[in-house]
Amino acid sequence: MEPLTPHCDHTSGCITCGDEAIAMKVLRIDRERGLALCANEAGERSSVETALVEPVEPGESLLVHAGTAIGRDSEERVVA
Amino acid sequence: MKYVEEFRDAELGQVLAGEILAAVDPERHYKLMEVCGGHTHSIYKYGVDDLLPDNVELVHGPGCPVCVIPMGRVDDGIAIARNEEVIFACFGDMLRVPGSERSLLEAKAEGADVRMVYSPLDALRLAKANPDREVVFFALGFETTAPSTALTMMRAKAEGVSNFSCMCNHVTIVPPLRALLDSPDLRLDGFIGPGHVSTVVGARPFEFIPADYGKPVVVAGFEPLDILQAVLMIIRQLGDGRREVENQYTRVVPYEGNLRALEVMAEVFELRPHFEWRGLGFISQSALRLSDAYADFDAELRFATPGVRVADPKACQCGEVLKGVIKPWECKVFGTACTPEHAIGTCMVSPEGACAAYYNYGRFARDRVVV
């Protein structure tokens, strides 16, 4: 039985949501296939398409949406 | 996570709330629209609206791609999914969206092979793992998601995965915003621009809003301090008499966007002449289809679909909610006939929908207008 609530909720970054992407850290790179093994805040790993943000290096933080890195998460702090 | 906690700092939030209070004109009412469903959720998850003065009102825009999919498209998807050879892959939110007679989840219960995927690439993997089946990916989303579909279609073509195709429902953000701004019953003072759509398209496409309609736009991130700071920036623009596009989310959004993403989208997609939006009607050049170069991978050309337009349920006021004309709790069926478990309208189905956000975070009782 499928759960009634969709799997992708706002806490983990909804897949289809208009807009939300999540920050993931690059662990390992497969340059040949254009993929990188990345981990999210909770340590969950998945392979991510990196064609749109190449070149990437291990340790970098990427903004990932629907399995694809669409940008980088830089480290500028909020200014009140 | 580093650089996340800082953007949820309660003390800094109070400081920003104080600055907003000092910046507003007490004689004036401010009505600001957050375009994106992700913002709607952050606002209610963190209680951002409770920190705002009474005369600053946030209204929710059309920025949830699941919410704006019309029932006829769901019916078309189900028609494809019911082909015996088809594995129909889609994102989780889409499964429960009601078509005219059933949802994809109900079609699955009746025997259709419908599977949830987390990315278009997962759907392509399904196709490679099942060479004797036809795998159809139901693509939807704004420009945030479209590049991911585009890259997957390029991979499918390069690798010759001929049993893979895509039913494309990708939509674009600017045409519905223009349609909203042209709507005579809409009164807005400014826009909180979508953060991650702008990662792809940049902030430049929103320049028409101050230029043609005289309204400020601030592209914002999704943490509570991001949203508060964006509200402050809009109110300061209004107070200073400035009307421009500002980028609050500079740590992620380049003003020009991700040029490589725009290139792959331009190769794989072309604009549809028009597309129906739930509650907003037909909007010209507001959605994408596969380009001629990728026609072999177009599920709508590969499979027969009814292609019938289905009117929204009469009781459902998703259209007014999406336009920001009414608040979710002002809808006649909100929280009674329409709940996340038994949704009538799409705004209740998707966790990003404005109605689901209100329902889940207990806002439904507040200031309810009896109609």
What key phrases describe this protein's structure?
heterodimer; A: 80 residues; mainly beta; five-stranded antiparallel sheet; 0% helix; disordered N terminus; disordered C terminus; B: 371 residues; alpha/beta; five-stranded parallel sheet; four-stranded parallel sheet; 13 strands
Topology:
The complex is a heterodimer of chains A (80) and B (371).
Chain A (H helix, E strand, L loop, with lengths): L21 E9 L4 E5 L5 E5 L11 E5 L2 E5 L8
Antiparallel strand pairs in A: 1-2, 1-4, 2-3, 4-5
Chain B lengths: L9 H14 L6 E7 H9 L10 E8 L7 H11 L4 E5 L13 H6 L4 E3 L3 H10 L4 E8 L4 H14 L4 E7 L3 H9 L7 E4 L1 H7 L6 H6 L3 E3 L4 H17 L4 E3 L11 H10 E3 L2 E4 L3 E4 L3 E3 L8 H4 L15 H6 L22 H4 L4 H7 L11
Parallel strand pairs in B: 1-2, 1-7, 3-4, 3-5, 5-6, 7-8, 8-9
Antiparallel strand pairs in B: 10-13, 11-12
Helix pairs in contact in B: 1-10, 6-11
Short account of what is shown:
The complex is a heterodimer of chains A (80) and B (371). By secondary structure, chain A is mostly beta strands.
Structure notes:
The complex is a heterodimer of chains A (80) and B (371). By secondary structure, chain A is mostly beta strands. Helix content of chain A is 0%, strand content 36%. Chain A contains no helices and five strands. Chain A has strands spanning 22-30, 35-39, 45-49, 61-65, 68-72. In chain A, a hairpin with a 2-residue loop joins strand 4 (61-65) and strand 5. Chain B is an alpha/beta fold. Helix content of chain B is 36%, strand content 17%. Chain B is built from 15 helices and 13 strands. In chain B, helix 1 (10-23) runs parallel beside helix 10 and helix 6 (146-159) crosses helix 11. Chain B is globular, with a radius of gyration of 21 Å.
